[in-house]
Every structure is written in structure tokens, then in C-alpha cells.
Specification:
single chain, about 200 residues, alpha+beta, Arc Repressor Mutant, subunit A, Thiol Ester Dehydrase, Chain A, about 35% helix, globular, transcription regulation, repressor
Length: about 200
């Protein structure tokens, strides 16, 4: 069923508000229109292209990474709220894939997820104590992997982080990372309480 232009544009706007990382190609497929139609709709609605949307999100919601230096992060972090959630993007290039099959090497997807799990921790020291991971689909050269991390809980110096990685809207990797942290927050709180006694 073909939608009317105004209806399609309204849905396009809502879709990009909920997922600003969707490509024009994925949007065209979702709305069953040409890529050119999506681009024209975006221009009429003053919605920037994907790269600009990514930069906008990064400027709005990026805390400073504490546990890693910027060159240690695999992928580009575009959203970070320490001890809450984070998002990173990895564009899979020829150096990330097996030369014969063009399939991404698993350790790159793991490294993206693991570095995001480390980056989300609001502490100077964060180490992976345990990881339970699952690859659900092969990733090819030229695809963009969006990893989304969410803190699920903390207990006794350990924080559990869930990471799910997607290509377009399809899950390609999931993992649960138990992160060791030095727990600076609780130590500071204990010191303050001792000083009051």
C-alpha cells in the first residue's frame, strides 16, 4: 500500500527521531520508495544526511570516556552517558574482513562491544571480568554496525553491561559483560562518612 506524501514524511520524521542512524537505503526499503524520494523528503523536512545526524547526536550526549583513551575505543562513540548507556558505530571495511569471504572477523565485533562496555563505566579503571557473547548473523564489508550498551546493574565492584549490535535493524551480536571497577564513587562516599564521624 502506497502512503500519501504527508503521511510518509510524518512517519519518516518519527522513525529518524527514534533511530537517527538509519541509512537512506534502509528508509527507502522500509517505506517502499526510492532512495531519491527519501532524500527529497529529508530535504523538505530539513533533516540532515546520516553523517550530520550522527555528529548532532554525538555533540548532544557525549560524556568523557574515563577508562579508555580515545584511540583505544573500537568504533566511533556517538552517545555516552556514563553508568547508563552508550552507542558506537563501526563501519566494516576491507581490513576488518576475511579476504576470501568478505565476512567480518568476529574479534572486531567483540572489540567494538567490549570497548563500549569499558567506556560506559564511570571509573578510571574498568576491566572485563567475564563476557557471554553470541554472534547471530554474519557481517559483510561495507555494512555499518551500531552497538548499543546499557548498564543492567552493579554489585560489589562489578557492573553488568548488556551490548547489542545491529546492522540496519537486524541483531548481529549480543553480549553480557561483567565489568570490574575500582569503585571510586563508594570509596569517596565512605571517606566522607568517616570524616563526619
Amino acid at each position: 500500500m502506497k502512503r500519501k506524501k504527508k503521511e510518509r514524511q510524518g512517519l519518516l520524521k518519527k522513525t529518524l527521531e527514534s533511530n537517527p542512524f538509519m541509512t537512506d537505503e534502509a528508509l527507502a526499503e522500509q517505506f517502499a520508495v526510492s532512495i531519491q524520494t527519501i532524500r527529497l523528503d529529508r530535504m523538505e523536512l530539513a533533516i540532515p544526511e546520516l553523517r550530520e545526524r550522527i555528529k548532532d547526536v554525538a555533540k548532544q550526549q557525549l560524556d568523557d570516556v574515563k577508562a579508555l583513551s580515545p584511540d583505544e575505543v573500537i568504533g566511533e562513540i556517538v552517545d555516552l552517558q556514563l553508568d547508563k548507556r552508550a552507542i558506537s558505530i563501526l563501519d566494516v571495511k576491507s581490513e576488518h574482513v576475511f579476504s576470501r569471504s568478505g565476512i567480518a572477523r568476529g574479534h572486531h565485533l567483540f572489540a567494538q562491544a567490549n570497548s563500549l562496555a569499558v567506556a560506559i563505566i564511570n571509573d578510571e579503571l574498568a576491566l572485563t571480568a567475564k563476557a557471554t557473547i553470541r554472534f547471530t548473523r554474519q557481517v559483510q564489508a561495507g555494512e555499518r554496525v551500531v552497538a548499543k550498551a546499557q548498564v543492567r546493574g552493579s554489585d560489589s565492584g562489578f557492573t553488568t553491561v548488556e551490548v547489542k549490535s545491529y546492522v540496519e535493524q537486524e541483531l548481529v551480536f549480543s553480549g553480557e559483560f561483567v565489568m570490574y571497577r575500582t569503585n571510586e564513587k563508594s570509596k569517596k562516599g565512605e571517606r566522607q562518612n568517616e570524616n563526619r564521624d
